[in-house]
Amino acid sequence: MAFRKIIKEAKTIIWNGPMGVFEMPNFAAGTKGIAEALAEATAAGATTIVGGGDSAAAVEQLGYADKMSHISTGGGASLEFLEGKTLPGVAALDDKA
Description:
Distance between the termini: 49 Å
Structural class: alpha/beta
Order of helices and strands: HEHEHEHH
Strand order of the largest sheet: 1-2-3
Mean pLDDT: 92
Largest sheet: 3 strands, parallel
Strand content: 5-15%
Radius of gyration: 15 Å
């Protein structure tokens, strides 16, 4: 897999979105390969963050959930946070302060 080498060399990996229709065995290979590579990277000391409900479901279904550093169902919100956008829930907390 082309991505495996890059993933193994990374110190922090953020994955948001499966690589296809992982629920169907004929289309699960890409998602499974990425999940395996992330599990190996985590074991080697990398920080792995899986974001999004479908990605979380994929690593759970494939048996890799306990091999990731962090799993969040907030995929879109996580990406917006990384972009530097203010999230509505955080803004509401700031208003109360």
